[in-house]
Amino acid sequence: MKIITVKDQVEGGKKAFDLIKNAMGNHEIKTLGLATGSTPKTLYKEMVTSNLDFRNLQSINLDEYVGLPANNSQSYHFFMEEHLFKAKPFKINYIPNGVAENIEAECIRYNKIIDENPVDIQILGIGENAHIGFNEPGSSFGSETREVALTESTIKANSRNFENISDVPTHAISMGIKSIMHAKKIILLAFGEKKAEAVKQTITGPISEDIPSSVLQLHPDVTLIVDQAAASKIDA
């Protein structure tokens, strides 16, 4: 695992963008795996303000809340439109349908999309409890796309985006850990002191399903981009 320590989230976004830009310049990327939340916002800002054209690329998102339609301002469809796709369209954007009539069938459909469109670079954030995507502690390393119940800590962390904690969805469709690990390259972003323990466990902790991100120790090409606060416990 390659570790890049940066001053702050803005610099982290620039570093991640440079990796994507170089891969595009070398024609090494056809499918880009995308994440949501506050962590990748500075990366998407770099992409939006760049002169790069993404219309030959396709994107696959990690997850979506169950029960939120695409036009809901808290859905990940909406997030991606607002922060990236509206300004920088891709050839095709794949995001799970959180209001599908049959969620199980939607998970099977989405998993097929992932299998048929191998991800060249996967952008990942990390939760305070070391979740990746919505693969919470205890998720099988062999998991594929499925409906997951969100932990109380994840619901609380995500409640900052909702008026009330009771408005936060309790379930999501998430790409599984097995699928994430199939990406050729992974860029893991972590910013802020609250992520410091999860970062430490990701790098030096035991490889355990109780620490979902620890599986990344087994991947052949991971770049971890962290600010100084998130890196503060690495050598502790």
UniProtKB/TrEMBL annotation:
Key word Ribonucleoprotein present: no
EC number: 3.5.99.6
Active-site residues annotated for this sequence: 63 (proton acceptor), 129 (for ring-opening step), 131 (proton acceptor), 136 (for ring-opening step)
One GO BP annotation of this record: N-acetylneuraminate catabolic process
Cellular component GO terms held in the UniProt record: cytoplasm
SUPFAM superfamilies in UniProt: NagB/RpiA/CoA transferase-like
Pathway(s) served: Amino-sugar metabolism; N-acetylneuraminate degradation; D-fructose 6-phosphate from N-acetylneuraminate: step 5/5
InterPro entries assigned to the protein according to its UniProt record, in alphabetical order: Glc/Gal-6P_isomerase, Glucosamine6P_isomerase, NagB/RpiA_transferase-like
Keywords: Carbohydrate metabolism, Hydrolase
Glucosamine/galactosamine-6-phosphate isomerase domain boundaries: 18-217
Top EC class for this record: hydrolase
Pfam families (UniProt xref): Glucosamine_iso
Recorded superkingdom: Bacteria
A molecular function GO annotation: glucosamine-6-phosphate deaminase activity
Gene3D superfamilies, A to Z: 3.40.50.1360
Keyword flag Transferase: no
Catalysed reactions, as listed in the record: alpha-D-glucosamine 6-phosphate + H2O = beta-D-fructose 6-phosphate + NH4(+)
Function recorded in the entry: Catalyzes the reversible isomerization-deamination of glucosamine 6-phosphate (GlcN6P) to form fructose 6-phosphate (Fru6P) and ammonium ion.
Record family assignment: Belongs to the glucosamine/galactosamine-6-phosphate isomerase family. NagB subfamily.
Protein name listed in UniProt: Glucosamine-6-phosphate deaminase
